[in-house]
Amino acid sequence: MVNRLPSPETAADSDPQSILTSKGVAALLGISISTAQLWMENGNLPSWKTPGGHRRVHLSSVQRLQQRLAHDAGLADVAPLNGDVLSPAEVQRLAAVERSGLRERETGPIFDPLTWLAATVTTAPIALLTLLTQSQQLFLSRQGVTMKDTPRDWAFCNYTIAQDDIFFVTDTLDDARFRDNALVTGAPHIRFYAGVPLIDADGFKLGSLCVIDTEPRRLTGQQARALRELGDIARRELGVRQQR
Predict the structure, then answer these.
(1) Is the pTM of this model over 0.70?
(2) Positions of the chain with pLDDT under 50
């Protein structure tokens, strides 16, 4: 039975960004939308309906269900990435990824000019605009590679979204975090990386704009500034499209 009105939750649940659709729930829990809807209907996942009849769920309810499922499976923690439990901040970030709709859109025509410029001004053979889901790194735009995605745990961009400025790796073979990465030991044989976070209108870091080289190197001051500026343009473009 679905509750018609939201029950009192934590203070954070009053934030509209802490309210999920059935699609967002499905993405976070790794289940189908129909399964998410069934769990809402049978009370396994407390939910309510909007006046228009659409199901909504609090983030805190999803987190509690996630931990309960892990407990029932005999696991100490839920481990979606590198053995770490999804933090509340990461759950909110993933919800923002779903709200962006970028996974379903054809984004090449929007962002290809930015990745082309990023590669050109930094003289890098590869430039990417990425989106980080719970399990994948998706390439919304790409220059210099043909692959469209990688597993999330291969993504250098995991480190980029953890900070506000450019994240640099001048030589992957000298960095214990990356020397055994599949993108270093295999194609495209990354040796250099520089990326800035792709930030939405609400401040969530959805992915990154990055440049990659197959040789160790550094960016000049002007190149670093250009990459920051292009990241800001990507953020503004994303904000415009979110308002439509």
Answers:
(1) no
(2) 1-13, 72-84
